[in-house]
Amino acid sequence: MSSPVGGLHVLPVRGLPEFTAGDDLAAAIAGAAPWLADGDVVVVTSKVVSKVEGRVVPVPPGADREAVRQRAIDAETVRVVARRGPLKIVETRHGWVVAAAGIDASNVPGDSLVLLPADADASARALRERLRELLGTEVAVVVSDTFGRTWREGLTDVAVGSAGIAALTDHRGAVDAHGNRLETTQVAVVDEVASAADLVKGKLDGVPVAVVRGLAYEVPDDDAGTRPLVRLGPGDLFPYGSRDLVPGRRPAADLVPRDGDREAVAEAFRVASAALPEFPVVLRHGGEGDGVVDVHLPERATTTAALNLGALLGAVVIQLHAEGWTTRWEPVGTPGGSSLVGRLWLGSPRD
């Protein structure tokens, strides 16, 4: 366990160039900060890591940049968590739940977009080893990116990759000064380091690297990087965003926005779900006034689940059509895990 912190210095690394694919990022940092010392934490913006690793999407001349961006978001998405118009909160293949899959359109030329690093933990490990080779110093490395926070305005930097520093400081089981045993407290140290470093990097100052000095941190044996920060599966209490959740066996009466239609649609799902009481599905109204129900599988997709899903939707569609509704089914997302598997669009009853 780390010892108490006596005081910190956060130092910007200035004079770095504009990076492109194939550049030696570690050599540039070593040249600009030969004063790096053992125990320092080097915090690098993910954008420059992505640039040197070639994680850049070109925007062809004359192309609609936003359309290219939306395609790139879809390509990086494994699960749509929430959406409103063109804004999407998604889960990436890294496990991060983030707006627009972390794809950055700022501080880059208009003919390109920058993706998150493919494996920022591996990038951090490689950068740490290269700095050791160049300077002979033992430092930790954090790769940071800017995230929003649920139910809070503003942005802050968090860690998307790390090496040589434990991501979490675990206080569970410790006893505080009042004799209370801590049950759940784990401090996301690398996130705090990333946020502190951003105070001297800034968003508009062109300083992509900073050094946090004076932090007493734990060096892990396994160096799991930022993986311990990812909360998915049973620990994720908010897997479907902020809209109302509707259990498959007890849909609420407000699946669609039109007052006169709500009960008819809810009843269709009630009848269909009653025939498959063990089928694990979650329904969610897809948006304000857009007449859509999103269908999720809270458990890993299997052949049986797919067959049950087909049976459930078939029963719903048959009942809705018998009552004069129009429907359209749109597969969405990818199989496996806790994913959005499809979207049922609802049209007004025919006259």
UniProtKB/TrEMBL annotation:
<keyword id="KW-0479">Metal-binding</keyword>
<dbReference type="GO" id="GO:0052618">
    <property type="term" value="F:coenzyme F420-0:L-glutamate ligase activity"/>
</dbReference>
<keyword id="KW-0460">Magnesium</keyword>
<keyword id="KW-0342">GTP-binding</keyword>
<dbReference type="Pfam" id="PF01996">
    <property type="entry name" value="F420_ligase"/>
</dbReference>
<keyword id="KW-0630">Potassium</keyword>
<keyword id="KW-0547">Nucleotide-binding</keyword>
<protein>
    <submittedName>
        <fullName>Coenzyme F420-0:L-glutamate ligase / coenzyme F420-1:gamma-L-glutamate ligase</fullName>
    </submittedName>
</protein>
<dbReference type="GO" id="GO:0005525">
    <property type="term" value="F:GTP binding"/>
</dbReference>
<keyword id="KW-0464">Manganese</keyword>
<dbReference type="GO" id="GO:0046872">
    <property type="term" value="F:metal ion binding"/>
</dbReference>
<dbReference type="InterPro" id="IPR008225">
    <property type="entry name" value="F420-0_g-glutamyl_ligase"/>
</dbReference>
<dbReference type="InterPro" id="IPR002847">
    <property type="entry name" value="F420-0_gamma-glut_ligase-dom"/>
</dbReference>
<keyword id="KW-0436">Ligase</keyword>
<feature type="domain" description="Coenzyme F420:L-glutamate ligase-like">
    <location>
        <begin position="16"/>
        <end position="214"/>
    </location>
</feature>
